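Folded chain entry —
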Amino acid sequence: MLSYLRIENFALIDRLELELSPGLTVLSGETGAGKSIILAAMGLILGQRAAGDLVRQGAEQAVIEALFTIDERGPAAAVLAEDGGAALEPGGELVIRRVVNREGRNRVQVGGTLATLALLGRLGPELVSVVGQHESTSLLRADQHLALLDAFAGLDDQRGQVGRATAQVRDLDGRIKALGQELERREHRRDDLLRAVEELEAANLRPGEEDELRQERHLLAGAEQMGNLGRQAFDGLYAAEGSLLERAGKLRGQLKDLTAIDQRAAGLAAKAEEAFFLLEDLAMELRAYNGKINFDPERLDWIEARLHQLQRLGRKYGGDAPAALESARQELASLETGQDALRELAAQRQTALESALALAEALSDRRQQAASRLARAVEAELAQLGMTACRFEAQFIPPAGAAVATDKGPLGPAGLEGCEFLIAPNPGEGLRKLARIASGGELSRLLLALRGVVAQKMGLPTMVFDEVDAGVGGATGSAIGRKLAQLSRGAQVICITHLPQIAAWADSHIAVVKQIDGGRTATALAPLDERGRLAELARMLAGPDDQGTARRHAEELLAAARRQKQAQ
């Protein structure tokens, strides 16, 4: 429900605060007092566009604030959760604040968090339903008609089952399409893949081969120089006259002779002995090394050609030829396994579609049965609201939203059909879409009838009725008041009216008055007590004249409304 509304510097309103209660609240007042301005300010809270010329003369910005109390598991809370921004206060309280400056720029806060007009646009219909001569309403949207029919027939659970089953079919369709496109892409590459595998397999690739060949090429390319260096080292160490080993042998003998004379030289002789044998071992190893050096120009040419081949294959197939071969083999194999997966998905899709169609057909049968019951119930309600000759029909149309083609027709998220309400308000007229009804009063009464029929079966936001009394007399007005009072038992109802027969049914009555202060006009609110209600009803009945008779009539209206409320 809407608990509190504050409007500041908006059109004729200087500062206005409105505390609202559950039940039926009536706003009344002289023509031009500002009732429509309050409705326009409420529209800004619900996401309607604003212009800078709505800011009160002399002010820089207009401010509208509203406090709602909402069901923490209801659709409004779901919108907030989906947006991921604002959070509810304890107890489900939500504050919405909108500031409009003279340039038409907006600042929106939802739950204390900056928000967008788009969020207000999604959130607004879940908070307040406004119906009036110049107001757009969800009732005009055909996508809402099916929801009302389902709520009336108690089909919400079945509708949810159909939605989930249809979503499963669409998910499988998406997976089938994606896999099919991937397999088609691979199929177009089949010849390329086969050629790649043939060429790469013919190359007898071996992991790590290129690195090994590069190392061998390096050695072969330096073999001649390595041989020269190795021979020179061996000659200097062992083979040449005056080699290092020959001189080490002489040194070895000299130190042996010295030891024979002076035993203190024994350590030196031992080291010379050790050095001689180390040099001899080195000479033998060097000779063996030189024997392994092989300068093979033909082998070097073959390695160069092989490396060139591997590099060409690497450039052609993405850098790593062995990895490219394995990838091509796997992609070819996946063409076969992919076809198996595609057939499995198709089988799953057929099963899911059959299940979804069975659920949708059962839902369609119940909707067909409910449509005529809804029409009769709405026509009965409208007859009590002064539209005795009005005809109403729930017509089935193709489903809205993305649909799955089936042999039973398109299957949408809500089933095999959509629904659109048609109405013929007057005798001799053909049935027409609600959007073509010009009278806001007729539209308001139709919504009142529909809401009354389904009120106990679906959650309702705060409802605001404007012009619901357009073109009706006293008896019909009293019937409308009674319906509004009945509806307000399960939802907060706000009604702007000029008709005392409706105002008499209010749980709370607020007068909208125009005041002149300091040469400036301003709209104000006056919550009415029992005496004030009598005075306001008398004014609505007779204007400023004949207050005695009008007051007695007002007392009778209030008493009659109280008796009927107690009897309900």
Summary: The first helix runs from residue 35 to 45. The radius of gyration is 47 Å.
